[in-house]
Amino acid sequence: MESADVTIIGAGVIGLAIAAEIAGPGMNIFILEKNPTHGSGISSRNSEVIHGGMYYPEGSLKAALCVSGRHRLYEIAAKNNIPHRKIGKLIVATKPEETEEVERLRENAQKNGVDSTELLSTRNIAQMEPNISARTALYSPETGIISAHDLMNYFLMKAHRNKAELIYCTKVMRIEKEARSYRIFTRNTNGDTFDFSTSCVINAAGLESDTIANMVGGNYQLHYCKGDYCSISGVKQSMVKRLIYPVPVKNHVGLGVHLTIDLSGRLKLGPDTTYIPRSEDYNVTAQKAPLFYESAQKFLPFLQKENVSPDMAGIRPKLQGPHDSFQDFVIREDLPGFINLVGIESPGLTASPAIAQLVNKMLTGKQSH
Ligand SMILES: Cc1cc2nc3c(=O)[nH]c(=O)nc-3n(C[C@H](O)[C@H](O)[C@H](O)COP(=O)(O)OP(=O)(O)OC[C@H]3O[C@@H](n4cnc5c(N)ncnc54)[C@H](O)[C@@H]3O)c2cc1C
Description:
binds flavin-adenine dinucleotide, 5-stranded antiparallel sheet, D-Amino Acid Oxidase, Chain A, domain 2, elongated
């Protein structure tokens, strides 16, 4: 019977970044993924933005790991030819009462160690982005975009090179704690079952990370919070050069329906925030297009209704319920050698290399607990 030193559950950007970080000579690492491809969960349904780190409360893991992850991500991307661009972003105030919030965000950015932001006047904005409408704005030159799939492929290649093994179509069904290890029970898509023993477990199961943690006595509950996107067509790509965000939704639920630009220059609006029952429903209804048009038209006055149409959606794995306040990432060794990563919503993609370094530190010395 095979056994592993470390078993990573989930081959999204988090599981793969961790595998790339910890794999090395003499380590027997399994990555288990229920789907036939890697990165087909949350990691392929997001805005692909490298966040600056302005929003999150000072001292939170989200703030610290976003800032350090961003630096690391740019280094990794530049060194390994991963498509990315540091295009910058504006957070815009369209009403007088929003100016204060923009100023507050600047202070928060500074507390988080993001020193490069700049407050812009209406005139500055008109020079940088002549086609948008805003009274004031916070400019973040460090924000960028990246190909999430190329990033994941890079992490996987690095992990493979160090002999980590990714096993597809294999779902973790149950986990039992043994004296000094864990027994993982799996089922593949043919219905075959297989179990093995592992010294350490890293739970990076995204939308199912609470289920996995609760298999060994955890008490987590994720709320699914859907984010729909609409595509923009019939607008010249050159109309806007940077990512344009409104002031964020109160309570850290989301960043507000914003304008994103992908690496091919296509413009998109989204994501909004809707708590949904627990199911992976990615349907975007036609009604979303006029709603998105209305909220974005305030800062993108060139938009016409017919430019906006329903596109893709993603689901956030939120520890924060609809009436709760801010909740941080949970990255915790709840049992000896069992590390749970729960609630890894945005900025998880940006933070992924820093999360991987943190987990590596937590694991050091744990292989024979
Ligand atoms: C709408 C939206 C927009 C976002 N925008 C950004 C952004 O612009 N910038 C940013 O930094 N972050 C963003 N994020 C956050 C980022 O996408 C996530 O933090 C990140 O992708 C989470 O990766 P993950 O590996 O934890 O999850 P996933 O990619 O979902 O990976 C988890 C994997 O675990 C597998 N799995 C689950 N259960 C089991 C099981 N029992 N057995 C085996 N495998 C299992 C799943 O199939 C899945 O492949 C956004 C998120 C959303 C939803």
